[in-house]
Amino acid sequence: MTPVGDDVVRAGEAMDSAGACAASGWPDLAGRLTASGHELAVRVYFEDTDFSGVAYHASHVRWMERGRSDYLRLLGVHHHVLHAGADGGDGAGPAAFVVRRLELDYLAPARIDDVLVVATRVEELASAYCRLSQEIRREGTVIARGRVQVVLVGASGRPLRIKGALREQLSR
User: What share of the chain in percent tops pLDDT 70?
Assistant: First the structure.
């Protein structure tokens, strides 16, 4: 993990300078909250690559999904809680975020064994959707840049308003 800097907002257990949880010594698998959003370290494994050792384009989409999911997790938004209907934003029962739009620009290749950082931040929070900006970086250099619009939908598949505690968590 990247060393913890002064811009880190602590979420949960304290972390040491190597990004490990102080009490257990284990790395924080959900990444870390920062002043501008969230960062998650990922390694490029053999399964992520094509025959030449370059990361397959769909791997970037998976890494970005992990970044978004862990960002929400550290904000206190849990997919299983939304799905169970405990807090769908407006009390309408089960809910989930679904991807409505994804834009992704590939700027440089990722290769097997690279350690990458997926950076995520909320760009816009509207009544029923959230737009996030994401970057995948290798040693500080942006190798992919994306924007993702997710919509909160109910069991019927119709959009729900993002309200209450859910809106507050996403507005942090």
Answer: 80
